[in-house]
Amino acid sequence: MTPELLAKLAAPFPDDAVGSRPEITCQPCKVGGCTAHKWAECVECGRTLTTAHVHLDYVGHAYVRERLNSVDPDWAWEPMALTPEGLPLLQDGCLWIRLTVGGKTVLGVGDAPGKRGGVFWKELIGDAIRNAAMTMGVALDMWKREPVAADPVEPEPGQDGQAQPEPAPGDEPAQVDVPDEPAELRERIRDITKRRGRTAAQTAADFTKWSKGRQLLRANTALLAEYLDHLRQDGKR
Q1: Domain carrying residue 59
Q2: What does DSSP say about strands 94-101 and 90-91: parallel, antiparallel, or unpaired?
Q3: CA dihedral in degrees (181, 182, 186, 187; nearest 10)?
Q4: How open is the CA angle 146-148-149, to the nearest 5 degrees?
Q5: For residue range 174-228, what is the model confidence (pLDDT) as tens digits?
Q6: In 10 A of CB 220, how many CB atoms?
Q7: Do 98 and 18 fall within a single domain?
Q8: Same domain, residue pair 38 and 122
Q9: How many CA atoms lie within 13 A of 176 on its CB side?
Q10: Based on the domain organization, do 36 and 121 belong to the same domain?
Q11: CA-to-CA distance for 233 and 237, rounded, in angstroms?
Q12: Most exposed among 22, 69, 128, 170, judged by the fewest C-beta atoms under 10 Å?
């Protein structure tokens, strides 16, 4: 494996090759009965799920195979072990493989929870190849990003039964054109794009393209406000 091949394997993927999937970060939410978070429609992925989730970037199996083909047309994979019938041997529902690219062989493991039949095997193999290819640098930058879990829902003013402090005399709320909180900004962005017939997933993709790689859910207040203004100006044309 030469440095040139490694650089080609680790090259960034184009925006249209990168997907995003939600992942719940709260264990009680996964099993049910959590009282710290609420369930709502996510403005980024359009799914209804707990607010204690993050969105993880990933590259699909086809794009990973395409990258391997372009770097080494002779790349190959094989299962670590076979059953007496000659089929790949599974361990606890997982498939261990050897992936060889450019003369270098690494191990990988894949699983496909909740899948059955042919779909199970396709996703299993694809996941194992992606996992092994990541060891060689393919989409490694996506795995390096640390996701931040959603914060618990804060109680509404007065919900805890305590009196809320009165504003000081003469204090007037600041008059602003856009809200300060990113969540409210995203909601306004979603309202506009929804009226224009765009789904939540399309809105997230549009934002990523406009911002040159940033994610809607992780963008800061300033960038969201700029995009909101962009949508309003675009609607006037």
Answers
A1: 3-144
A2: antiparallel
A3: -30
A4: 135
A5: 333 434 467 778 888 888 888 888 888 788 888 888 888 777 877 777 788 888 8
A6: 11
A7: yes
A8: yes
A9: 8
A10: yes
A11: 7
A12: 170
